[in-house]
């Protein structure tokens, strides 16, 4: 009895190997080509931001302001970080998903807010989470890019404390465009391909692209806080 031909299977395996090699090459190329920004990417959250990272557990979250999963992940993460602050520091990296048409606009808006009034960055992120539906693809399909920028500026102005025209001018500032691009490129260099993605002390947490609930955050952070406390106590007693 003749054996079935192996060529199709072999071709598939070779194709998969080629795709994997291409992705690895692209990642290395991107790392080499991405220019180093003048400051570390992202927005530090709350009082924990002032804590030296070497003495705290560092959580990094890659979030898309227009992503429902990012929205659902925010409150449990925020509560967990506030529970352990200042022993836990949080940095949020804006990561605009390409299939959310105006996610890049929303990420630029965060940088505009941060420039005009740094204390308004997280309130604006929460405002985007609360009003996501206004900027979904279906809701903005008949709007132009400048029109969406105007609508975002109207929403953001009161939170930031500036006029609509002042906020809107930020969309003409090449620095906010560059900052949002750096955030996206930085996420790519970390292997991020969706949102939300979480890293704890530099290590990727399982389930990328899905929210982590509060009890799971406690189970992740509590042992690290305990170990960190023991380590600090050991050094101070020497």
Automatic annotation (TrEMBL):
<feature type="domain" description="DSBA-like thioredoxin">
    <location>
        <begin position="59"/>
        <end position="203"/>
    </location>
</feature>
<dbReference type="GO" id="GO:0016491">
    <property type="term" value="F:oxidoreductase activity"/>
</dbReference>
<dbReference type="Pfam" id="PF01323">
    <property type="entry name" value="DSBA"/>
</dbReference>
<protein>
    <recommendedName>
        <fullName>DSBA-like thioredoxin domain-containing protein</fullName>
    </recommendedName>
</protein>
<dbReference type="InterPro" id="IPR036249">
    <property type="entry name" value="Thioredoxin-like_sf"/>
</dbReference>
<dbReference type="InterPro" id="IPR001853">
    <property type="entry name" value="DSBA-like_thioredoxin_dom"/>
</dbReference>
């Amino acid at each position: 009895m003749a054996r079935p031909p192996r060529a199709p299977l072999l071709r598939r395996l070779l194709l998969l190997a080629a795709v994997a090699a291409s992705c690895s090459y692209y990642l290395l190329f991107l790392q080499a080509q991405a220019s180093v920004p003048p400051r570390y990417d992202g927005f530090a959250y709350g009082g924990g931001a002032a804590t030296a990272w070497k003495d705290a557990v560092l959580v990094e979250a890659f979030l898309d302001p227009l992503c429902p999963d990012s929205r659902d992940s925010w409150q449990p993460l925020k509560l967990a970080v506030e529970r352990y602050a200042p022993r836990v520091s949080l940095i949020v990296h804006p990561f605009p998903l390409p299939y959310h048409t105006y996610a890049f606009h929303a990420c630029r808006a965060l940088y505009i807010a941060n420039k005009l009034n740094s204390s308004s960055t997280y309130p604006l992120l929460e405002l985007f989470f609360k009003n996501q539906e206004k900027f979904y693809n279906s809701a903005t399909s008949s709007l132009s890019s400048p029109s969406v920028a105007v609508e975002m500026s109207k929403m953001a102005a009161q939170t930031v404390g500036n006029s609509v025209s002042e906020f809107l001018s930020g969309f003409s500032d090449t620095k906010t465009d560059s900052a949002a691009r750096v955030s996206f490129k930085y996420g790519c260099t970390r292997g991020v391909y969706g949102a939300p993605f979480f890293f704890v002390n530099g290590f990727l947490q399982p389930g990328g692209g899905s929210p982590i609930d509060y009890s799971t955050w406690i189970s992740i952070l509590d042992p690290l806080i305990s170990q960190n406390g023991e380590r600090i106590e050991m050094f101070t007693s020497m």
